[in-house]
UniProtKB/TrEMBL annotation:
Keywords: Membrane, Transmembrane, Transmembrane helix. This is RCK C-terminal domain-containing protein. The keyword Membrane applies. InterPro entries: RCK_C, RCK_C_sf. It comes from the Bacteria. The chain crosses the membrane at residues 6-27. Residues 46-127 form the RCK C-terminal domain.
Length: 160
């Protein structure tokens, strides 16, 4: 992709996220219908709303107290190409994060992604929630298709 097209896409996604946030603040009764997907198995429940005309999706999640996302910088999430953290609400404050912005427990996070990348983004967010900033490395130590790789505890393990 050339730089002009990338800039246009980034500006479009940012405008959509800002418009969405302003819409939430102004028209509380007109919120989009969030479809909840996933579970609290890996300490992250992700909701999504589509951006039909842009083939994009807004993913929303909260950094839960048990999640290892707390303390992770946005850049350390290592989201796939075509996905970006566009907005974080922390209490009454809303901020557009940089790669160095650190996630905190209780943060509400809005991720904009291409429609075809939703599963990949969700998988990455669950991995970071479970393993923290070294998620890719820790996952590589688990044998493929093992119970632990899927987050299932064995009889001798306690809930951490």
């Amino acid at each position: 992709m050339n730089a002009e097209l990338e800039l246009a896409i980034a500006v479009g996604m940012l405008c959509a996220a800002v418009g969405f946030a302003v819409g939430l603040a102004v028209g509380r009764g007109r919120q989009p219908r969030w479809a909840e997907k996933g579970s609290f198995t890996h300490k992250v429940s992700i909701g999504f709303a589509t951006l039909d005309r842009m083939d994009g999706v807004l993913l929303r999640f909260e950094v839960e107290p048990e999640s290892k996302m707390s303390g992770v910088e946005v850049g350390e999430l290592r989201l796939p190409p075509g996905a970006a953290v566009s907005l974080i609400t922390r209490g009454k404050d809303a901020l557009v994060p940089s790669g160095r912005t650190t996630l905190r427990t209780g943060d509400q996070v809005l991720v904009v992604t291409a429609l075809g990348k939703v599963d990949e983004v969700e998988d990455r967010l669950r991995a970071v929630s479970r393993y923290g900033r070294l998620a890719g490395w820790y996952e590589s130590l688990e044998p493929p298709n093992s119970a632990r790789a899927f987050g299932v505890r064995t009889a001798g393990e306690s809930a951490a």
